[in-house]
Each structure stands twice: as structure tokens, then as C-alpha cells.
Amino acid sequence: MKRCFALAWFLGLLALAAPLPQVYDRLEETLRQVRLENPTQALSALDRAQSLLRQESEGLPPVLRDAILVHLQDARQAVPRQSRADLEARLLLVRHLLGKALYDAFFQAPAGQKTPYLTRLVRATGLSQAVAQGAESLAPEEARRRLEAAYLKLMAEDLGQALSASSRPQAYLALARAYARFLVIQDSPQSTLKAQDFIQALGKVSSGEDFRPSVRELQEKASAWRRHLQTLATASPKATSAPPPAPVPSPAGKPSATPPIASPPAPPVPSTSQVFPAESTLPQEIREEVSLLRLDPQAAARIGETLQRLAIPSLINWLDLLDEVRSSLAQAQLYTEAGQYNRARAQLAYAYSRFRLKVYPVVGAYAPELAERADRLFLAMQNAVGLRTVDFTVLLGEIQEIEERLLGGSLGPWHTLQVQLQLFLLGIPRAILFLLASALAFFPLYLGWITFSGRNVYWTLLGLAFLFLALPILAEGVSYTGSILAEYGGLPILGLLANLSIAQGLVPYLAWGISAFLVVAFAGAGLRGIAAQFGLLRERGREVATLAEQKPSATTLTSETIVEWDEEF
């Protein structure tokens, strides 16, 4: 029986890990619903696509999955702006990155299981059926050359459309389509193009600069790539049809005058998922920059390799990407302070997508434990209820710690302690802590009210001091109640109660200071009056002594001597 349960559990796990073709089918069906005519439906579809990728992306490499999530988030931001060109460009990149995964899986699949991947590859990237027909029966190198040539032909057409476009949106869309084609075959050993070339050209289109020289340069590189493929295609049949002649046997006892010709060994076919840039192949700028870091040589070499794999031209550009993450977090902090929590969470999600795609791999090359800690902090904040501005301060400190570690420094153990506390208490645990404290605060306040609410003004002042002493914790409890009801109860208007939290901004911080001042004032006035009535202060001692002399004897209990205990003073 136990074995049956174990088998069922194992089959359940296999069912959760959907294969790549099924993941693509579900994503394709979801992305069909993304249209600017219905922004609500489009945003909902993009959210479902992101959730699907996070939950069922076992067949996708992490780098491709993170890149797809970034472009889905960018597409989500293009919907409210009603930017059709930007939305179509992002969806093109999403489909072709999925096509990249299908392309790699096609060559890695066994002989009888290639058809599902090739069929989805045609749908994802717009490849013609004539090119794809029979590709699964070819040798791997022949199939690779055929598909590369088809994508290069499509890329050349897209680059030509970008040059002849009558408007910048048309040129941007055509250039983005060419870039998407390149992403599918970017790991080819014959590639003469880089992703950074397309990104720079797209940036010129967006900024209004003259982009045509960059596009012509891309055309020349793509043409050189195609010529090289044609050379390989024509050389391959000759090499296979003309085997080397067999050596002529020499007469007995006489060695051959010429040694037998040995055919050169075939070069190994590099895997498309394998990246192995040697230190000597790194660009000179990256080599010079990583050599100046105060890190061990192996870590510096890993940083250079990671930068090259991510198509980041230099360490300075990577620091700019880190500044982009920092800027998004600063905006999220400002939106949180202003009470615009939806925009704050959108900026937080964008910052995490950029961190995961461009920052996390490089940090993992020199400080893997820091990369994992920052990643856990990002995820904790995305899933946490009741975010406060102080939470973003800790996360911004973690981003600064990444830069400090790169340069050989650190923010110290105090920052590490704050991060660990943040990971331990962030979200529901912290909310429960403050809700419980605010609920328990009512009990001493009630006891103080029934104790100090008599007709003696000094006891009343002391009760007010207790009230203002517990007021900040009561405000924290109310603020977290509003946050929970806003995020889980469907009452977003109550999110404004978060502004009562001391950790939220300057106004509640100053209000806490004023309440502390009132505690000191009321407690001082009340305790001074009580101390004077008890004869503990020198200047009031004579008055109290006179009152004591005028009192009747304690042994004589009449109706005239029974008074309220707080009226006695």
C-alpha cells in the first residue's frame, strides 16, 4: 500500500512538471488574449502568463525564463500607455525566447520525439513549413544549418523593412523582429552578431537618433554570417563524397615513400546551452576592468565570463544596470510613502525582474551567498503584506552591499542583522506582532481609566500619559489592520491607514515625537501634583502637614469622615 502511495505521489510530481511543448501551448493561448482594445483583459492575461512561467517552467532554462518574465512585465507597462509598437515588440521577444528554448530542445530530443518541438518552433517564430519539413530527419549539423539560414533570411528581410520604414514605430517593430530572430540562433558558433548591437540600434530608434548606419552594419554582419553558412554547406558534400584514397601497399620489404594521409579530426560540435569563453577571448575592456577589482583572480574571471554571456559590454554598464534597479526601488519607496501601493508593487516587480536577469548572475560569480540572500529578500517583499518605507531602505542597503562587495568593502554586521530580521519578521509575522501588541494595550488602558479617572486632576493627567504612551502601538495595529483588509479583504481604500505607521514617513514619525512629548508633560505634571499631595516635595510639605493636622482621628469612623480616596488628597 505504501508503495502505491509513493508511486502516485511520484506520478503527481511528474504531472506538475509540464513538458515544454505543453507550457508553450498554454502560454500561446494566454498571449492571444493580450489586446489593447481590452486593457483589463490584456493585463489579466499577462499576469496569468507570468504566474504560469513561475509555476510550470521546468523545461525552460532559468536565464530564458527570467528574460521572458522581464519582457512580460514590460508588456504589462505598455498596455496602460496604449503603445502598440512596444507591446507587439515585447510579445515578439517573448515568443522568440520561447522559440529559443524549443530550438535547443529540438536538437537535444531523441530521434522520434523531435516533431512536437519543431511544430511549436514554427508557430512561435513564424518559420515556414517548407523549411521545417523533413528537418527532424536530417543530421543535426545539416538541420542546424538549414534552420540558421532560414532565420538569417528572415532577419535580412526585417532589417530591410527597418531601413525602408516610413515612421519610427514601424522601424522599431521591424528591428525588434530581427532581434527576436537573432535570439533563437544566438548560440551559433558561426555568429557574427551580438545582442548588444541590436539593443544599441533599438535605443537609437527610441531616442530619435539616426539609426540607419547601425542597421546597415547589422545587415553586413548578417550577410557575412549567411555567406559563411553557404561556404560550409557547399564544402560539406565534397568532404563527405570524396573519402581519402586508400594507401597503396608498398612492395614487400620496402617502406612506403610517403606516409599515409590521416584525415584531420572533426571539430567538436559545441552545445547551444554551453558557454565557455576563455579569459583570452574576453574583450579587452572587460579584462582591464575585472583586473582592477580587489577579488581573487578566479572570481574576477567568472565575472568577466558572466558579463560576456549576458552581452554586457563592460563592468561600468553592469553598474548602470544596478543603478536602474536601485532607481526602481527608490521610486517604489516614494510611491509607498505617498500611499500609491499598486504602483509601488509594480516598481518592485520591475526591479526584481531586472535584478534577476542582469544583476543576479554577476553577483553569483563573486558572492553567491549575497546573491541568494538578496533574491530571498526580493521574493519576501513581493509576497509580504503591509510594506513600509523602511522595508525598501533595507532592500536598498542590500543593493548597496552588492556594489560594496564588488569593490572589496561591506556595510558591516549591522546591515546583515537588519536583513536577517527583515527576512524573519517581514509580512504576516510582523503584522501579527503589532496587532497582538495593540490588542493587549487596551487592557492596561482600561485599568488605567478605571484607576485614574476620578475627580483628582493629577490622577487624570497620569491616565492621559498612559494613553499617549500606548498611542503609537495602537496606531501601528490600526495601520496593519488596514493593510491586511486592503490586500486580502478587497478594500483597497483602507490601505491609506498604513500612513499611520511610524515606519511609513515623516508625518507619523513627528506625530510619535509629539506623543512622546505629551507623555512626558502629562506624566510630569500628574506625578508632581501627586508627590506634592503626599508631602514628598519640600515646597508643598507645609500645606500637606496642615491638612493632616485638621483631619479627624482615624479611629473615629463617622459618615463625615468617609470620603472618596482620590478626593482625600
Report what the structure shows:
This protein is an all-alpha fold and 569 residues long. Helix content is 70%, strand content 0%. It has 22 helices and no strands. The chain has helices at 2-16, 20-31, 39-55, 62-78, 84-108, 115-125, 129-132, 140-164, 168-184, 195-207, 212-241, 284-291, 297-309, 315-337, 341-366, 368-383, 389-406, 413-425, 428-452, 457-488, 506-533, 541-550. Helix 19 packs antiparallel against helix 20. It starts with a helix and ends in a 19-residue tail after the last helix.
Describe the structure concisely.
With 569 residues, the chain is mainly α.
Secondary-structure blueprint:
Blueprint: H1 2-16, H2 20-31, H3 39-55, H4 62-78, H5 84-108, H6 115-125, H7 129-132, H8 140-164, H9 168-184, H10 195-207, H11 212-241, H12 284-291, H13 297-309, H14 315-337, H15 341-366, H16 368-383, H17 389-406, H18 413-425, H19 428-452, H20 457-488, H21 506-533, H22 541-550
Helix pairs in contact: 2-3, 2-5, 2-6, 3-4, 4-5, 4-15, 5-6, 5-9, 8-9, 8-11, 9-10, 10-11, 12-13, 13-15, 14-15, 14-17, 15-16, 16-17, 17-18, 19-20, 20-21
Note the main attributes of this structure.
single chain; 569 residues; mainly alpha; 22 helices; 0% strand; elongated; disordered C terminus
| H-E string | HHHHHHHHHHHHHHHHHHHHHH
Number of H/I helices: 22
Class computed from helices, strands and strand pairing: mainly alpha
Largest sheet: none
Contiguous runs where pLDDT drops below 50 for at least 5 residues: 1-17, 238-280, 553-569
Question: What is the CA-atom radius of gyration, in angstroms?
Answer: 36 Å
The fraction of residues assigned to DSSP E strands is under 5%
Coarse shape: elongated
N/C terminus separation = 81 Å
Helical proportion, percent range? 55-70%
**Mean pLDDT metric:** 78
For the secondary structure, the number of strands is 0
